[in-house]
TrEMBL record:
Pfam families: Pep_deformylase
Keyword Iron: yes
Binding annotation for Fe cation: 90, 132, 136
Cofactor binding description: Binds 1 Fe(2+) ion.
EC number: 3.5.1.88
Higher taxonomy: Bacteria, Bacillati, Bacillota, Negativicutes, Selenomonadales
Identification of the protein by name: Peptide deformylase
């Protein structure tokens, strides 16, 4: 496994609409492993493939709940319910946080690393993270939709 370089705001790959994965290969599975290792190394809770320079519809998420590490290939949010505004940050926008309005509850359909179709309904931090990471796949950063932004230095 490898820790990959995380692209920062301003990199053109972060503004592209990511391509769907047609067929999962050994290369994609290694990418999933490397993305998870990179996310954990950076103390993140989610990472989308465009953030590591790969314009593919692949996301890893781990909000330290009962779901553990989630690997979402070609995720599509099929249901949004309610609304909640909360603070967000992003590994691609270091030391910047903002208040973002998101759906309170979502259902996402995706393919897992074994090419099985899955569906997951989430709320709270997991729902927020799913929406944030799916935005990356459409070339959107949280700073594009935040109602307010603030700069905070990372606490050690």
């Amino acid at each position: 496994m490898a820790i990959l370089d995380i692209k920062k705001a301003g990199d053109p790959v972060l503004k592209q609409v990511a391509a769907p994965v047609d067929r999962l290969t050994k290369w994609h599975r290694k990418l999933l492993d490397d993305m998870a290792e990179t996310m954990y190394s950076a103390d993140g809770v989610g990472l989308a493939a465009p953030q590591i320079g790969k314009s593919l519809r692949i996301v890893v998420i781990d909000v330290q709940d009962e779901n553990g590490l989630l690997e979402l290939i070609n995720p599509v949010i099929t249901m949004r319910e309610g609304s909640v505004t909360d603070s967000e940050g992003c590994l691609s926008v270091p030391e910047v946080y903002g208040d973002v309005e998101r759906a309170a509850r979502v259902t996402v359909e995706y393919t897992d690393r074994r090419s099985r179709r899955r569906s997951l309904t989430a709320e709270g931090l997991l729902a927020r993270c799913i929406q944030h990471e799916c935005d990356h796949l459409d070339g959107r950063l949280f700073i594009d939709i935040a109602v307010s932004l603030r700069k905070e230095e990372k606490k050690e």
